[in-house]
Amino acid sequence: QVQLVESGGGLVQAGDSLRLSCTASGRTVSDYSMGWFRQAPEKEREFVAVISWSLVSTHYADSVQGRFTISRDNAKNTVYLQMNSLKPEDTAVYFCAASSDYEPMTEYEYDYWGQGTQVTVSS
User: Fold this and answer.
1) Cα–Cα distance, 60 to 93 (Å, whole number)
2) I want to staple 45 with a disulfide (CB 3.0 to 4.6 A). Which of 19, 39, 54, 82 is the partner?
């Protein structure tokens, strides 16, 4: 019922910034909590950030706290991930996802996933 498309990934140097976007169709993002996950090669998918559908609260993984900011524009049906001070360890495919839960932080709590966008940070 929900289709998610990420964009904004690319190749950057350590210390640079990127802004990822996730646009939804089929349903408005206001119906869901929206999260970002990432998966590096041969590693498990890990939680990055989530923004709730109700009180507009946010939560971040410790590894990105203070560097990444998640936001949403419900009128545009879009969720963003602003990534600053990027590190080589941030290199991964980044996925956006939608959940009916309030602040889901595990992949099993998400119902819909985008195709992913590659972020590569060189040193």
Assistant:
1) 17
2) 39
Measured in whole angstroms, how far is the alpha carbon of residue 76 from the centre of its chain?
16
At CA 23, angle to CA 20 and CA 63, rounded to 5? 35
> Strand 92-99 relative to strand 46-51: parallel, antiparallel, unpaired?
unpaired
- Given a contact cutoff of 8 angstroms between Cβ atoms, the answer to whether 78 and 29 are in contact is yes
CA distance 31 to 53: 6
Q: What is the pLDDT of residues 27-37, one digit of tens each?
A: 777 788 999 99
In the prediction, which pLDDT does 29 show? Answer: 72
CA angle at 14 for the pair 13 and 18, rounded to the nearest 5°: 70
Neighbours of 13 (CB within 10 A): 10
